[in-house]
Design goal:
single chain; alpha+beta; Beta-Lactamase; Helix Hairpins; 5-stranded mixed sheet; about 55% helix
């Protein structure tokens, strides 16, 4: 339709100039202006065809002999050819300017869309789906529709998986843009049936990737802060409760000692049993205080080479109420690199648990030897002849055996080792403590 209107316009201009008696120079200028107007409003093909038609009309009506397509004077040939070339160049320049203006407008819209996306993403709340809604609005602003897919965890990918993939669609194309952040893919931005430029889509994907990583970082930071606050609260509670219990327990212990000096017979036996349980409770409180200090880092373990036999001897002195304790230390057992006070508390808690689970007059067996699978560790074992572990229990779960074993596990971890339980052949249980072995220099390495 525009092509027909263009040719009709040239015909109208030709008739108007002819009846007004315009000379060749005036007609040339008017025809050139008409071609520029057609180039501004139509396509390149239409403007080129209009240039040819205008050149023919210029020749037929304004160059003598008028009414023919021939030219009498050679100079007029130059004028006609110059007009034709000028009209072609003018048409081309006008169309190029139109294309650049259209591209500039498209870039302006893309920049506005990216700016709006950045504002949406980095002012979004933690509401679920906020990032997806912002990404969808950004795609609509650049003339696309799509969705945002966020992976649960960032995935390591190769170079091919970091590239944008374009697939032809019914209208336009589908573009899949990975959200790359630091060599990891946090998700995928999918633009469906779009005509937007790849540069605009990749810029949007970069902003979305940064926003996803920001949200993930904020979530991890909040989680870490909550854990730190929880640990601080737990440590404060442990210290407060332990301190509040220590004072009345000391008074109870003094009163029990006075009572034992005043009674005899069954009453004395009952007082001794009360004293035993009171001492066990005091040790638990001391253990809790030690754990609280370790977690608060107010006390740092001070490991040193410690013989296993010395630890076993200290346990027997620390727990005089336990009758039979049998000790075995292998000849090739190295010294243990551990804080002696922590190691003593670990063994004391395990021995107390074993004593409670064992039948009367059943011995508690303490063993020390080099770890059978790791020469860098020493294994300590506390064995009893109690009921052992339940058939359906998890050997790695130490909590079901009581607070003492949980304290031993925590102190063992703070000492660079670990505590585990297993059933003993023939009945009973074995508590195994794996601790670092001390490295002593050879005699030849000792400086003179």
């Amino acid at each position: 339709m525009k092509a027909v209107i263009a040719q009709v316009s040239i015909a109208a201009v030709t008739l108007m100039l002819f009846y007004l008696g315009a000379n060749a120079a005036t007609a040339g200028f008017v025809f050139l202006i008409t071609i520029l107007g057609i180039a501004v409003t139509t396509s390149l093909t239409t403007s080129l065809v209009s240039s040819v038609v205008a050149t023919l009309c210029y020749n037929y009506f304004f160059f003598p002999p008028v009414g023919t397509l021939t030219i009498q004077e050679p100079a007029n040939w130059i004028a006609l050819i110059s007009f034709f070339i000028a009209s072609l160049i003018a048409s081309r320049l006008v169309l190029r300017a139109r294309m650049q203006a259209a591209e500039a407008e498209a870039r302006r819209k893309e920049v506005e869309a990216l700016y709006a996306l950045s504002v949406d993403l980095f002012t979004a709340t933690n509401r679920a789906g906020a990032l997806g809604e912002a990404a969808a609005r950004a795609l609509r602003n650049v003339g696309a529709s799509g969705e945002l897919v966020i992976f649960d965890e960032a995935q390591d990918v190769d170079e091919l998986q970091k590239q944008t993939v374009e697939i032809p669609a019914r209208t336009g194309r589908d573009v899949y843009l990975p959200l790359n952040v630091g060599g990891h893919v946090a998700g995928m931005l999918v633009a469906r049936e779009t005509h937007a430029t790849v540069r605009a889509l990749e810029s949007a994907a970069t902003l979305v990737a940064l926003a996803v990583e920001r949200e993930r970082f904020l979530a991890e930071s909040a989680h870490t802060q909550a854990l730190q606050e929880g640990d601080a609260l737990k440590t404060s509670l442990l210290r407060a409760v332990s301190h509040d219990l220590a004072t009345p327990l000391t008074a109870i212990a003094l009163q029990i000692d006075k009572l034992r000096s005043l009674v005899d017979g069954p009453a004395a036996s009952a007082a001794a049993e009360i004293a035993e349980h009171t001492g066990r409770l005091r040790r638990r409180i001391e253990n809790l205080l030690a754990m609280a200090r370790l977690e608060a880092r107010s006390v740092v373990p001070r490991p040193e080479p410690t013989p296993a036999a010395d630890l076993f001897r200290a346990v027997r002195e620390h727990l005089p109420i336990i009758g039979r304790i049998e000790v075995r230390v292998a000849d090739d057992c190295p010294e243990i690199y551990v804080d002696p006070s922590l190691a003593l508390e670990i063994l004391a808690n395990l021995v107390e648990n074993a004593h409670q689970a064992s039948p009367p007059d059943s011995p508690i067996e303490l063993s020390a030897f080099r770890h059978p699978m790791n020469a860098e560790q020493v294994r300590l074992e506390v064995a009893d002849r109690g009921p052992g572990l339940r058939a359906d229990s998890d050997p790695s779960d130490t909590t079901h055996r009581g607070l003492g074993l949980e304290i031993a596990r925590s102190l063992g971890s703070a000492s660079g080792g670990q505590v585990a339980l297993t059933n003993r052949p023939g009945g009973g249980a074995i508590a195994r403590v794996d601790l670092p072995a001390a490295h002593l220099p050879d005699i030849g390495e000792v400086p003179p």
